[in-house]
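Quick one, tokens below:
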């Protein structure tokens, strides 16, 4: 044993441990690099004009609303609406995080709910010990399943917070419990890593960012701020930060802005103000397939054609084996024998009926006369019997 230990220690000091092997299937996906703001064909002057006009319109509407209603001014959210040339093939349930210089919400005024793994009390204590005061509520997975099982309870929970965060370890389970109500309201829980050493910084980054929810439609909306928290310059800075992410994260876009048809700015209740429209010469560029997509499509069609030919060959072989199994010594199958036998029996019955009709036609006239004479004599005998009686 000592010798073995000596050899092991010697080998460990002379050779470095082998590098960890990581298969390609689990290697992290390399995200495309962000283009520079100067390379994006969206005019900053046009964006500034649209934002100023939008804020003036909101101010007029709120003044009129303040005269007519008791509530007065209300917060208006500002969105960037992206029109696509080609709709994404599938919906992305995980929102795309986009960092912005000015947070789109104030967590000390807008409630934030965090879904965590059980036990719930452990994470409540962790948040309290980390001096995190911007999380208004912590909900464990077991509590979510039991107390928020009904539709009414889920709807009430949805109204309680403006932003929902979720521990990335239970993201799938929480999504199953919540259902599509959160997705329809554009409030999908944002995944965060609770195991990080600086938990407060991780949660602050999640709250300070905006998010893009990719659906199967041709229109996407991204929140860039609110009229109460942000000025026109703040909204413009957030817009400039969002545009590079859109150019690189839009689905089915082989190049920057190749799949983008238009960009508009709007609030929750206002009309849309355009800031970008694809040129007429590029209106239908990007709607077709790229070279890789064409190659993939051709391979799929070829594979489908080969599968169809293979099924046809298998069907022919199956029919041939079926005939071979039913074949007899003289080379004819059972079904063919039965059909020929039925045909022969039918021909024989037809021939017998024809022969009988021919014999009746050839019956001698004397025999017919004898039968006719016998008929009256039989009638006379019957009348004589009646007279005697």
């Amino acid at each position: 044993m000592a010798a073995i230990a000596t050899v092991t220690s010697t080998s460990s000091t002379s050779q470095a441990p082998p590098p960890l092997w990581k298969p390609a299937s689990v290697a992290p996906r390399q995200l495309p690099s962000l283009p520079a703001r100067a390379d994006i064909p969206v005019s900053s002057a046009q964006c500034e004009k649209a934002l100023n006009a939008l804020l003036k319109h909101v101010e007029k509407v709120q003044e009129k609303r303040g005269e007519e209603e008791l509530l007065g001014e209300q917060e208006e959210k500002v969105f960037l609406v992206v029109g696509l040339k080609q709709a994404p093939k599938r919906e992305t349930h995980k929102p795309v995080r986009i960092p912005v210089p000015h947070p789109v919400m104030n967590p000390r005024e807008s409630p934030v709910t965090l879904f965590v793994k059980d036990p719930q009390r452990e994470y409540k204590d962790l948040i309290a010990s980390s001096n995190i005061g911007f999380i208004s509520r912590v909900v464990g997975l077991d509590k979510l399943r039991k107390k928020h099982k009904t539709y009414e309870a889920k709807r009430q929970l949805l109204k309680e917070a403006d932003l929902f965060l979720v521990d990335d370890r239970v993201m799938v389970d929480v999504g199953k419990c919540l259902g599509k109500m959160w997705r329809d309201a554009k409030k999908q829980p944002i995944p965060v890593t609770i195991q990080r050493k600086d938990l407060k910084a991780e949660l602050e980054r999640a709250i300070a960012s905006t998010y893009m929810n990719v659906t199967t439609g041709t229109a996407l909306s991204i929140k860039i701020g609110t009229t109460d928290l942000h000025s026109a310059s703040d909204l413009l800075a957030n817009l400039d930060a969002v545009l590079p992410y859109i150019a690189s994260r839009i689905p089915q876009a082989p190049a920057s802005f190749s799949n983008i048809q238009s960009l508009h700015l709007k609030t929750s209740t206002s009309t849309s103000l355009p800031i970008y429209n694809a040129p007429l010469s590029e209106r239908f560029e990007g709607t077709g397939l790229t070279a890789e997509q064409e190659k993939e499509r051709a391979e799929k069609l070829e594979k489908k054609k080969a599968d169809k030919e293979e099924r046809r060959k298998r069907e022919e072989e199956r029919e041939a084996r079926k005939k071979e199994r039913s074949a007899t010594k003289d080379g004819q199958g059972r079904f063919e024998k039965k059909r020929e036998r039925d045909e022969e029996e039918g021909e024989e019955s037809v021939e017998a009926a024809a022969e009988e009709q021919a014999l009746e036609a050839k019956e001698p006239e004397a025999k017919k006369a004898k039968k006719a004479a016998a008929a009256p004599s039989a009638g006379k005998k019957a009348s004589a019997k009646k007279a005697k009686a």
